[in-house]
């Protein structure tokens, strides 16, 4: 039997697959990485059993400067309509929301940056990926924009005090995470050096090497099993969420 194949859309070199790639490959998943700035996105999702879309420094609707963003939204829309397991992170989550009828905007409360908590919403208790997470897991935040309005029919799965739409599911198996779970300390320190204005919004010690290393050990403990459940969804070994098969407006 062939290994399941995931299409991985990478909008920015500064946000690689990193730990997420390690965890998925450990689950026997084959990863087809497309750096969107350098390679054309595929025309369709034939031959793929799922999609991952990573983060980046651009906005989800910055098509004038990054015309390939339209391809990312098209493929995410297609993944939802085909009911393919999808994991979209930070900018990826914003692209997923924009592609399925939600709204993205610059965050009115400024950047959300650092090692912070998100809280599961009630709907998470019945979700195959979120049910087993701790109630308030640690995550890595580094974003200026927010998902202002969730797509019609989306399940709201996690929130933070600053920006409520932290995690959501569109359809039965397309997940958007506003936060990061894939990073290493080195990746985060690189972001802080490239965007000191945003980094200054975090507590100063959040960019200490030792603090970041401990935080990433905590992330791995919680989020590697989450990614394992996503891999089971891709392999067809885990049933998708129930009651989410309604037709969504795909824009």
TrEMBL record:
InterPro entries: ChyE-like, Class_I_gatase-like, GATASE. Keywords: Glutamine amidotransferase, Hydrolase. Transmembrane segments: none annotated. It comes from the Bacteria. The keyword Hydrolase applies. Residues 27-185 form the Glutamine amidotransferase domain. Pfam families: GATase (PF00117). The keyword Iron-sulfur does not apply. It is an enzyme of class 3 (hydrolase). Its EC number is 3.4.-.-. One of its GO terms (molecular function) is hydrolase activity. This is Type 1 glutamine amidotransferase. It comes from Lentzea sokolovensis. The lineage of its organism: Bacteria, Bacillati, Actinomycetota, Actinomycetes, Pseudonocardiales.
């Amino acid at each position: 039997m062939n290994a399941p194949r995931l299409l991985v859309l990478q909008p920015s070199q500064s946000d690689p697959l990193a730990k997420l790639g390690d965890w998925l490959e450990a689950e026997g998943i084959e990863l087809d990485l497309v750096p969107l700035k350098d390679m054309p996105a595929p025309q369709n999702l034939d031959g793929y059993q799922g999609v991952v879309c990573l983060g980046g420094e651009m906005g989800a609707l910055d098509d004038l400067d990054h015309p390939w963003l339209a391809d990312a939204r098209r493929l995410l829309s297609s993944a939802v309509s085909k009911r393919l397991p999808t994991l979209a992170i930070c900018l990826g989550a914003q692209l997923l929301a924009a592609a399925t009828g939600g709204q993205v905007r610059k965050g009115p409360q400024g950047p959300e940056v650092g090692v912070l908590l998100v809280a599961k919403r009630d709907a998470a208790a019945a979700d195959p990926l979120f049910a087993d997470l701790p109630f308030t897991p640690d995550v890595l935040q580094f974003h200026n924009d927010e998902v202002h309005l969730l797509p019609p029919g989306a399940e709201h799965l996690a929130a933070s005090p600053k920006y409520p739409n932290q995690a959501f599911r569109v359809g039965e198996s397309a997940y958007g995470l506003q936060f990061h779970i894939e990073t290493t300390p080195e990746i985060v320190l690189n972001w802080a050096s490239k965007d000191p204005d945003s980094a200054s919004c975090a507590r100063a010690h959040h960019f200490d090497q030792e603090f970041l290393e401990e935080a990433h050990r905590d992330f791995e403990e919680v989020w590697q099993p989450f990614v394992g459940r996503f891999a089971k969804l891709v392999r067809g070994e885990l049933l998708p969420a129930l009651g989410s098969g309604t037709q969504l407006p795909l824009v």
